[in-house]
Structure formats: C-alpha cells, structure tokens
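User: Earlier you gave me the apo prediction for this protein. Now I'd like the version with magnesium ion bound, so I can compare the two side by side. Same sequence as before, with the ligand SMILES added.
Assistant: Got it. Here's the input I'm using:
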Amino acid sequence: MRTFLRSRETGILAALVIVVLITTIKNPSFLFSQDGFRDLLLTPSILVLVAVGQAIVIITRSVDLSVGSVVGLTAYLTGRLFIDVPGIPIIVVFAAGMALGAALGLLNGALVAFGKVPALVITLGTLYAYRGINVLWAGSNRVNASDLPKDFLALGTSALLFVPYLTIIALIVVLVAGWYLRNQRGGRELYAIGSDPDAAQLYGLGVTRRILVAFLLCGALAGLAGVLFAARYGTTNSQTGTGLELQAVGAAVIGGVAIFGGSGTVYGAAIGAVLLLTINRALPILGIPDFWQQAVVGTLIIGAIVLDRVLSLRLSRQLISEREVSA
Amino acid sequence: ATGCSSSASTDTSTGAAASGSGDKNYAITFLPKNLGNAYFDTSDKGGSKAITEFGGTYAEVGPATAAADAQVSFINTLTQQGVGAIIISADDPTAIGSALNEARAAGTKVVTFDSDTDPQYRDLYINQATADGIAKIEVDLITKQIGDTGEVAILSASANATNQNAWIETMKKELAANHPNVTLVDTVYGNDDDQTSFDKTAALLQSHPNLKGIISPTTVGIAAAARYLQTSQYKGKVALTGLGTPNQMRDYVNDGTVTAFALWNPADLGYLAAYGAKALIDGTITGKEGDKFTAGALGEFTVGKDATVLLGEPFTFTKENIADFNF
Amino acid sequence: MSISPSNSGPPALELRGVAKAFGSVVALTSADLTVHMNSIHALVGENGAGKSTLVKIVAGLYQRDAGDFLLRGESVDFRSTAEAKAAGIAVIYQEPTLFPDLSVTENIFMGRQPTQRFGRIDRKAMRAEAEELFTRLAVRIDPDRPAEGLSIADQQIIEIAKAISVDARVLIMDEPTAALSGVEVDRLFAVARSLRDEGRALVFISHRFDEVFALCDTITVMRDGQYISTDAIQSTSVDEIVRRMVGREVTDLFPKEVAPVGDVLLEVEGLTSAGVFHDVSFTVRSGEIVGLSGLVGAGRSEIVRAVFGVDRYDSGAVRMHGKSVPKLNPTAAMAAGMALVPEDRRKQGLVLESSVARNLTLSTRTRLSRFGFIDSSLENRAAKDWAGRLEVKTNALDTEVGTLSGGNQQKVVLGKWLSTNPEVLIIDEPTRGIDVGTKAEVHRLLSQLAGEGLGIVMISSELPEILGTADRVLVVREGRITAEISRADATAESIMFAATHSTESIQ
Amino acid sequence: MTISAPADSRTGTRVYAEYGRPFWMRLLLTREMAVIVALILVIVIASLEVRRFGTTTTLGFLLLDVAPILMIALPMTLVIMMGEIDLSVASTLGLSSVLLGILTQAGWPVPVAIVACLVMGLVAGLINGLLVTVVGLPSLAVTIGTLALYRGIAVGLLGTTAVTSFPAFWTGLAQSKFGSTGIPVAMVLVVALIVVFVALLHFTPFGRGIVAIGFSTETAHFSGVHVNRTKVVAFMLTGLIAALAGIYWTFRYGSARGDNAMGLELSVIAAVLLGGVSIFGGKGAIHGVIAGVLLIGVLQSALRLANVSSDVINIITGALLILSVLSPRFLSWFRSLRFRRATPEKQKQ
Ligand SMILES: Nc1ncnc2c1ncn2[C@@H]1O[C@H](COP(=O)(O)OP(=O)(O)OP(=O)(O)O)[C@@H](O)[C@H]1O
Ligand SMILES: Nc1ncnc2c1ncn2[C@@H]1O[C@H](COP(=O)(O)OP(=O)(O)OP(=O)(O)O)[C@@H](O)[C@H]1O
Ligand SMILES: [Mg+2]
Ligand SMILES: [Mg+2]
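And here is the structure of the complex with magnesium ion:
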C-alpha cells in the first residue's frame, strides 16, 4: 500500500482522474454519455500500444523513433491486404501486420545490438527509410473505409459491454507486458540492461538477445497499432502515423519511464498515453482553444519530468540520510 | 530542347514537349497541396485527360504533407525543368508567391486551381465555385436539415487554407443575415488529416452537447466526420454536410449518416485548369477580363475579374443521385 | 591451517602462460595459476600486476590472447560470463557491479531467479533466500531497497552474497575486504572456510597480508603481468612475498629528501558534506608532503575533490594564502594556485580520445590563447615542453592518450597539472597501476617539487608509499580525520590502528 | 614555480613530432573527408547525369533551401558534440517566425522586431539549458517537451491567421541573389555564421571545453571547464540561431505561420550526424557538418530534378544516416577479420 501510494504511476493516475473529474463537472457528457465514455477509452488505445512498446525499449536504455513509420506501413499493409486478397480472414491480417512490425523492429534491434551504435541515430534513420518505403508503396493511393470489411471496421469502434474492443486489446497487451516485465526473468533482465549495461555484461545476461527482443516487441506492438489504426480510422495513406514517435516517447516519459533506462513500468507509460490524449480532448471542453492545446501538452511533459527528477532526488537524499543513521 | 540525351529518364517533360504539337511547350505539371489526397487524385486525372486530348505531357509532383515550403522546392525544380505550365493548389497564398513569380519570369505559365494565391503571383485561377455559391449551398443544406434552428460547428482543413477561410467567412455572414436562430459555436481544424479530423469531430461533439449540425467544407474532413458519426450515438441526431467526393461518402449517404453534401466535379476542375493552361501557352488568353477560350468537352469559358475562371455552381449529392457518380 | 589442499585429481582451475593486451597496454605477459579443490588460494601483486585482468579472463569477460586455461583438467574457452557461470565459476569483482535501479534481492539473483509455474519469478522465495544470506553474513541490509545509494561496503557485501549464493565450484574474490569492517571480514572468512570444507576452490585477492596469512593456504605472487612464484603459506613470510612483489628491496623505493617547510598555503576548516565527510580540517605548508591515508572508501578522495571545488560541500571553508576559495568552482581553485591530480586518471584525469598535446594543455587553454583564440604554436610548444620534462614515452604529440601505457598516462596528467604552475598540488593515488620504475620516478618528482616549495597533499592506499614519502600523515576513517601522525611517529601499525579504530568511541 | 625535473638537460633527449602521420593522411583519412568526397562525387555525377543540374539557378535554389538547416546545424553541432541534443529548434524557428509576424503587424519597426525575436530565441535556449544543467534532466526528454511547448505557443499566438505583409526590402533581401551568380544574398549571413562557429569550436578555449565535455564530462569538470555554463551557452546559441533562421524563413517565404518548418529538427540532426558528429559527443567538425548538410541538399535537389519522387529521397537519407554510423563498425570488423586473434571486449565508450 505504501509503495502504491508512493509510486510514480499513482501520481499520474491521480492526475488523470482529476482531469476527467474536472472536465466531467464542466460537461457531464464527457463521462456520462455513451460516446463520451466510449471515446474516453477508445481514443488513447492505439497510442497505449505504441507507448507500451516504446517503454520496453526505453527501459533497456534505447529508444525507437521509427514507430510512427512502422504504424504507417502496417496500417497501409492492412488496407492493401483487404483490397488485394478479397475475403482474407481478419485474424490473418492481424498476424501479418504484427509480423511486419516485428520484422521492422527486429531490423532496428539488429542494427543497434550488432552495430553497437546508438538507437537514437539508427531509428532516426529507419524513421526516414520506413516512411520512404511507405510513400513509395502507397504513392498517392489511399485506403478508404469502403475498401475495408464491415466486421473489421466494427472492431475499431464497437464495444463489448460498454468497453470497446480496441481498449480490451490494449488492456490485455498492457497487462501481459506488465506481467512479463515484472515476473519473468527476461523482463527483469531488460531492466537490468537498462540500469547498467556493463554490469549486465558482467552478470552474463544475454544482452544482445534481450535488446533484439525489446525492439522486436516494440515493432510488433507498433504493427498491431497499425492494424487497429486502420480499423478505427478506416482510411490510411502514406502519411499515417507521422509524428507518433514523439507522442509515444512523451507518453512513456510522462508515465515515469526514465529516458536513461532501468526504471519505470509499462503501466506508467500506458497511463501517460491516456493522460496525454485525454488532456487533448478535455482542453476544448475546458474552454482552451484548439490552438493552445499543444502548448499545454508541452508544459505537461516538462512538468512530469521535472517532478520525476525532484522525487528521485528526494529519494536518493533520503537513502543517504538513512545510511547516515545506520552508520 | 537541346536534343542532348545524357539521361533518358531525367527529362521526360522537355523531350515530350519537343515531340508535341509544333513549338508550343505543352509540358504541364500538376502540383496539388499534397499527394495521397483523393480529391486531387480525381482532379489531376481530369487534367491528365485534357492534356492527352491536346497532345501535351502530363505530370504530377507534390509534397507528402501539405506544406508551403515543400511546394516552393517543387516549384523551383519545375522552373528549372522549364515546364510549360504549373497547375497548383496553393498551400499558402503568399509563401509560394515569389517562387511562382520566378517561374513566370522563366516563361512558365502559372495556373492556380482549388486554392488560390494572391492574384499577382499567377496568370489564371480556375475557381471551382464562387465563395458565395459554396457558402450558400452549405448553409442551405445544414439549416434545412436541422430545421433552421440550433447550434452548428465547422470542421475545416488547415488554419491557413485560403479557400476554406474565405468560405467560412462567407458562411458566417450568410448565417447571420438569413438564419438568426442558427448559431455557429465553434470552428476546428483537422489539417486535412484523417486521424486529426476524426478526433476533432469527437471533441466537437463532446464539447457542444447541443450541437445539431456540422459543416465540413473539405473532402478529408467530411469523410472522417461521417465515419465517426456512423458508429456514434449521434448518428441521425447530428446532421453533417460539406464538400465530399461521392466515392468516399457513398456508404454514409446510403446508411443515412449523411443526407446531402455538395461538390463540383473535381475531374472537370482539373480538366478546365489544363485547358486554361493550354490557352495561356497558346497565347489565346492572357488573363485579361473578357478573354475567352474553349475547354474541350466543357465548352467555352470566359475569364472574369482578377484573371479568374469559374467552373460553375456546386452540385448537391443525395441518396437519390449518388449512384450516378464515380469519382 | 587445518586442512591442506587435496592434490588428488586434476586441479579445479589451471592457467598457464596466459597473456592479454589492451591495445598498447600489456596487462598480462605470462600468468600462471593453479588452484586445487579444498583450498583457499591467495593471489597477490602490486597494483596493476594484472590480478583483476586474470580474474576477468577466468570469468569469461575477457578472452586471453595466448596461453592455456583448464577447468578440472579440461581445456575451456569461455566466450561470455554466462558460459563461465554455467561451468561453476563465481566471481566477486573488484569494483562492485550492481544495477542501481533494482532492489538488493534482485541484484543478488538477477538471471537466475527462482521460478514457479509459467516461469513466474518466486519473489517470496527469492526474498527469503536473500534474508538467509544476510543472516549467514551477519549483516543488516534491507533486501527490498534499491541498490542505488548503498555504501561501498554494503555493495561489496551484496557482491559476496551474490557469489556465495551460486553453487559454484570455483569462487574468486577480487579484494572483497577492501571496504569491509572487522566483523564483516570475520564473517566472510567463516563463510569462505566452510565453502572450502565443502570441497570448493577459492581464490582470494587482497593487499592486506594479515588477512592473506590468516585465511589462505597457498599463495601465488604476480608482478608486471607475470607469474613469479607459488608457495604453501606456511613456508613463506610477508617480507619474502613483498620482495617478490616489487622485485627488489622495498627500502630503496622511495628516495625522500626532506625539504624546509615554509608558510601555510592551504587551510581547510570544518569541511562537511552530509553522508560523505564531517568536520575535516587541515593545513598544508609550502615544501611539505601531507599524506592522506585510510582504508579504501574512507572518503579521502571526496574530501580533496570538495577542496578543489569539483564536489559540493555543505559547510566549512577552504582558504589559500588566507583568502577563501569559492565553492564548487575548479577554475577558481586553479586560479588560487591549486591543482588536483585525480584518482581515476582514465575517467577524471584524461580525455582518452584526445591527443597528448590537447590533454597537456586542457587546463591552461585560456592562458595559451591570444585575443580569445588558441595560439596553436604556443600550445604545441607548451605540450612539447611538458612531455619532454616528464619524459612521456610517445612519438608524436597527436597520439591518442588512451593508447599510452598507464604510467605514461599518469605522466600526462601530472604534466597537465604542473603546467598550471600550482602552489598546492593535490594528488590522489599518484602511482595506482604504475610500473615499479615509473613509480620511483613519480616519488622522486614529488619529493623534488616539495623541495622547490610546493605544498603537496598525497592520497595513497599503499602504506609504504605514505610512509616513504609523507612528512605528515592524516588518517581518514569514515569521513573523519582520526589522527595526525608526524613522519617520525608514522608506522604501518600506527596508521592502520587509526584507520580502523576511531578516536571517538563508536559502538 | 618552474619544474626542472627530471632534469632540464634531459629534456632534449626525446624528440616529439607534432603529428604522427603525414599531412595528407591526416587530411584524407578522416570521417569529414569521407563526407566531403561523397558530396563531390554526388555533385559530379549529378552534373553529368541530371540535366540542368549544373546551373547557377540550381545553385541558387539549393542554397536558399539548405540555408536554414545549415544555420541551425552549426550550433546543433556544439550541442551534439557535448553529448546532448536539441529537438526544439524547429519549434523555436516557428515561434520566432510568428513573433516577427505579430510584432511587425503591430507596427514595430522590423529591426526592433528582429531583435525581439533573437532575444526570444536566447530565452528559449536558456530554458532548455537550465532544465538540462541545473535541474539535471536528459536533454532528449526536455527538448521533446519544449518542442511541443514552443510550437504550441507559436500556433496558439497566430491561430488561423498568417501574417504575410512584410516590407519588400526585407523579403527582397532574403530572396535576392548576387547578380547572375545564383548565390543568394542571405549566404553572406550563413558564411559569417560558419566562420564564427568554426572559430568558436576549433580555435577557442570554449571550443576545447566543448570537445572535452563531449569525450568526458567528468574530466572536463576536473580540468576547470565550466560544464554547466558551457552547456547553457550552447543551448542558448542554438535557440538564437534557430530564431535567426525563423526570421530568414519568414522573409524568404513572406509568410509568418505557426506551423513553419514543422519537423525540421530531424533534418538538422540527420545532417549533423551524417557530417560525422558522434552522438556520444566529442567527435566532429564544422566542415564535416557543412558537407553533411550540402550532401543531403544536393541529393534532394538532383533527385527532384531527375523526377525521382520525394519518397526515394527519404529512403536515401535514412540509409545514409545508418551507414554513416555503422561504417566505423564495418571498418573495425574488417580489421578484426584480418588480424584473426582474440581482441579485447570493447568496454562502454
Ligand atoms: N580495460 C582495460 N583497458 C586498458 N588497460 C587495462 C584495462 N584493464 C586493465 N588495464 C591495465 O592492465 C594492467 C593490469 O590491471 P589489473 O586491473 O589487472 O591490475 P590489478 O593487479 O588487479 O591491480 P589492483 O591491485 O590495483 O587491482 C594495468 O596497467 C591496467 O591499467
Ligand atoms: N557510488 C557510490 N554511491 C554512494 N556512496 C558512495 C559511492 N561511492 C563512494 N561512496 C561513499 O563515499 C565515501 C568515500 O568513497 P571512496 O571509495 O571514494 O573513498 P576513498 O577514501 O577516496 O577511497 P580510495 O581509497 O579508493 O581513494 C564512502 O563513504 C562511500 O561509501
Ligand atoms: Mg585489481
Ligand atoms: Mg579514493
């Protein structure tokens, strides 16, 4: 209980609750209407997936800037599959999207792990390259909602007992990823690698393999997000997902994932993603004009990392004074 | 053309121009706001048809995302390639001005269509419909659907789109003058991006619980808004109209999400623009008021004030007639 | 010494003629080591003799360039630490290597956590086991706290717990006691003996001969990356071992000329930094060498870093010539006439990827510029001058400093600081990892500098160095100065006593 | 105090060459030279293969296009060489553009408005710098935040409107060229900045400090380099130049808009890294960066002239970037293949 109250996730969850509360008081339909409730859950679901993948990579002290481009490619792939292979089962499309995402992620991971070069540069490169491939492939074509099967589109908007399918998928992913990171050796090793890569080497942890896995997971989740993007928005073109990488990194950072690795949880990243997008939706209701919303988001990101820093400084000062006492 | 053939692939325009009819440079390039936009795909196809008819060379280049500085680079390149005419939909009324003037100084004719620049930067503007005409039809459609009373909002493209802003201004005047019981409560910007338009629609409905209608005078916006409405509680309760293409809107009209929307035929717009360019190249017209030229199957057109040619009045699409159109 | 090593069967661990070089630095030329089961084997040698490098080769972290490596009679070739671990080798590294963000328990069990169904980590079992380990070692550390902020001693204990919790047949401990207190050392030894009695082979590396002679049964000496000798512990003596370690008589190592002592240059008064050091006061006069002694981790480096303005301090004052020197501003300290040759020359002293010349002129770069621009001919002249005075062994001034040998790197650091014309030179571990010949040269240089009127503060973990060089010895224990001993009274015993027993009574 | 040790007489026994390798090797075997050679190759091939590439018009358009990236890349080099990064530059550019528009519209004289924009740039950089140094936050996270913040303010201030009426003198200055040479007048400013930054990075104590910080912040701190102050100054310079680029941008396009130069930060960083600056800090040189910027610019211009679509340009930019960081790895890998012997594990750099 004490650790729950003190944890970083709690703070940001509280912030989320406050935002929802205030907005609901101002306008009850924000929460208490069929669409309001649905959108509250639905809108952040895709970013949640991408942010979870991003968090896994950041925990290992890397970063993946190419996720936006991966989402774009897989979303377009989804549309193309439905158009070019009539009657293709939806599950196959999901598998194909995730497989493509995983492959792109694996390429990132391989370049980072074997090339021993910083992920920031590599994934900045693949951000361009994957986007280029997307534009080359899609050209000026686009996939329209009418090209996609109704069942598939329904996945993106309809709900099971008030909870949208997309949210259920995102929730499952968050829980599974969170469970894996907390309870599996592989997951703990990701933290260890991010906490001190040299020590991980000394411990004999399979650093290369783990980094590959982290990037692969990140890619696969971006791939899943791409498929769901197509289901939710119905249209995809060569620019789908542009700029998503900064949102994903921002969500993870707001959620308390340290940019230098080793600490933070996917729950935090997921809540961060929800907070980011919920604030976006709440601002117009709170009367903040459209144009100022980005400034608020920026302030939020900076506030979150400054707060995180202050808290961790306080913790380490506390640990030192504990040592003083015990010495 | 010099006839030098250092590289076959590099200079299709001049090569074709030389083989074209006589000494006229019929190399005509379309430069839409961005690639991957269904509306421009259709209009440019119309242009292509016209150019093929009179034996010129058609090309289409453009930035991946709508941005004025990217358009400038393309204008510069076309200037160097010495094309006969550029047919452009401007991302910014002034930012591309000096680049266009440079092109004109180099002998290239500049025709704007869809979205104009300031008149001093181009030779001819092909106007799809007058701002008055568009504003009036939009306002008529929405007020009729909501019973001439209640709140309406506008979902526009980017905040700087010349044509959009002109229409919005006129709509405001029209509403104030002839529909006292209808209030325009908000204008939001979807940046001609599916996802943004989609999310802005959701936010709009949330922030204005009493909203009765949405006008989206952009093809991307109206499709995204329709897609949101289709699966939301507001379907059938909130009216939606605007400018859309029949293929994108067919489903929504058939299932009752949208009753009616308007548009001119974008293919005709491109077709007319191409003939306008030809007339400029031929010297048939100079952009002077009263100049006349023949636009193939569309017949004869007269240049109006400010070197503007009007395509006609917009056409209203409804469930009854939408099956007759395919673009 | 009850149990003698059982020589039946092949040795648990055998290394023959192992060589290893890091670029131009040769760490090992020909190292031998044969460790039997049921034995605790001491490995001794001066700083930089190559002990840790040998350990890391056994651990699979480094791959040897040449030589044989046998485990229970079979030749092995570890490509990673995981392989060595799997073969039953556990290592306590000299520098603790913990994951700061993870809990103490996780640090102990990382990579081999107990699991339940579906590979789920059994946290309860893990925590219980950690508690058990700490009980066995008789220490109190919260198993749930993060490793971040642990003292060096606690970190070392976690390393020990980590190593003994593995069911290893060969356990190597690289200076595990360097930061430990008496009780902790006793517990560690009890555990080590019981492990030996279970039939395991242990290697113990330490600079403390009392511990070596109390614990071990066999002793191997290394010098300059080479095997020197192996003896049963009973058949040798400390003097003998030391002679073999340094390769000559100890006495002629430090040619000390006592210089006339002049005015007070540096005064430090009541310097305190919470959690690091408390109420530290001392003075340094012109012409004297003040030795700062104490156990590793006592906080000596932190004190001088704060004095020089690299680290912050909470209260107290630093004065040069009676004028106070601003806090946390090395530039101001330099301007006041101080220079600090730091402890870790690779991380703090040098820009390894830069050239010899750039390093030599880094602290004087402003002085070497004209109208705000660096005068490169002036810079090169200064660099040539200082490289020459200290006889740095390199061909060209644009050689990357990282490729020089340790001793030559140390000379570059010295040159870099001497070129600032200091009045007080603070020098932290001046001869760590430096070969015997260079060591004497450094000592002569220090002595000569003092003779020319510099005030010198020298930190050293090597008692002979302190005894041989210092005019006055300050002993630091747990962040406090516990004794000031004059050259005449300074002996190994008096210093060690002050370093381990506080003048104040501590429970 | 002079040190005569070990003995002045012995000083002469060892002769030190200033350089270990002959001049041509030092000149040619560098990362920067590889980029310059690549640039020259691309120019030569483009001139031969792409019609109308080798003209003064091309040169003019090319320089106009790369000028903002080139400007911002200069201070960005300092920042990246210290192991930091600034993602907020394009947003600062946009904010500066918007501010210029608003102020001139409000009737401020242009020179005064320009000064105000530059001050704003300094403040934007100062905020980044203080958050990174005093608060101790990673610059990647900080500047993701200010990227959104500065852009948000820019978009918020101007909303739907764009300011497009600027005195012809200023827009003319940003667009005009020196007679028929094709060289834009604005290049005078860019060249001046290049000179300043070359001097700053390579010939001043400040620059030496930057290199030392980049290789080892700790050593720099121990050597009396004001680490925090240097970092703050570099971030402020970046803000200042980004604001300057914003002014240039506004006049060149004659349009102040909130979304000007959106996404430019990645192009700048890509160019800097391509120019041989190490993301770990320490390594890099201005001439390499200039070559990096021009390499991307020339490639884009040539490909566009050759009617190769912009997507291929993206792919090539990405591939170049990845290759440029991997190339040292490939080299050492080849070397290790040649001397097939166990080499030390490369410890963390
Ligand atoms: N990674 C490395 N790169 C370059 N040189 C190294 C590296 N590790 C060790 N050395 C050098 O190898 C030599 C032997 O070092 P090693 O750490 O093995 O000595 P040691 O006997 O353990 O000394 P100590 O008693 O101080 O721990 C030293 O000169 C050291 O500077
Ligand atoms: N990484 C660390 N985290 C927390 N405390 C530390 C850390 N490193 C050192 N300390 C603390 O700082 C103090 C001094 O440590 P340090 O090893 O630098 O002392 P020292 O006397 O300089 O040792 P040396 O003999 O190696 O020079 C000790 O109280 C130690 O516990
Ligand atoms: Mg050692
Ligand atoms: Mg120390």
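For your comparison, keep in mind: The two ends of chain B are 37 Å apart (CA to CA).
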